[in-house]
Write a structure and sequence with these properties.
single chain, about 170 residues, alpha/beta, 8-stranded mixed β-sheet, 4 helices, 10 strands, globular
Length: about 170
């Protein structure tokens, strides 16, 4: 199973505040949809709740410490990332996208094969942060820079990292 982490982060590594995104980047949302559609996506409970409902054409894997947490039919909840990975391997998931939030990113970053990061040229206040990307483990293999415009609040770059070594 290929593990791919996808996130948008600010220059100061902020990824959210009050369980919400903190910028309007239409291109980032479009890229997220294009990359994750048709795949399994793994997230923490707070990230799932912030979505409001399951995203179309994706199977949701939610990690929650609450044993009574329930999800709609066709989606799955587990008490740990490890349990979720075991399930995904059992059912033959080829690509699993890790979509947040901060705690899930921290637990999974160095287990992933690839990172798809949107670097946002901003330093907003926030309460949720992305972990540091260690250049001894990750190699930048692609970058696409974009200016701010009427649909994208800040300049941003789509950056792909590939794992170069096991931690």
């Amino acid at each position: 199973m290929q593990l791919i982490l996808i996130a948008a982060k600010a220059k100061n590594n902020v990824i959210g505040k009050d369980n919400q995104l903190i910028w309007k980047l239409s291109a980032d949302l479009k890229r997220f949809k294009n990359l994750t559609s048709g795949h399994y996506i793994l997230m923490g409970r707070k990230t799932y709740e912030s979505l409001g409902k399951p995203l179309p054409n994706r199977t949701h894997i939610i990690v929650s410490r609450n044993p009574d947490f329930s999800v709609p039919e066709g989606h799955y909840a587990f008490s740990s990332v490890e349990e979720a990975f075991i399930f995904c391997n059992k059912v033959g998931v080829e690509k699993l996208y890790i979509i947040g939030g901060g705690q899930i990113y921290g637990e999974t970053l160095n287990l992933c094969d690839r990172l798809e990061i949107t670097d946002v040229e901003a330093s907003p206040d926030g309460d949720t942060f992305f972990p540091e990307i260690d250049s001894k483990i990750w190699l930048e293999t692609g970058r696409e820079d974009h200016p701010a415009d009427e649909r994208n609040e800040y300049p941003f770059s789509f950056v792909t990292y590939e794992k170069i070594t096991k931690p």
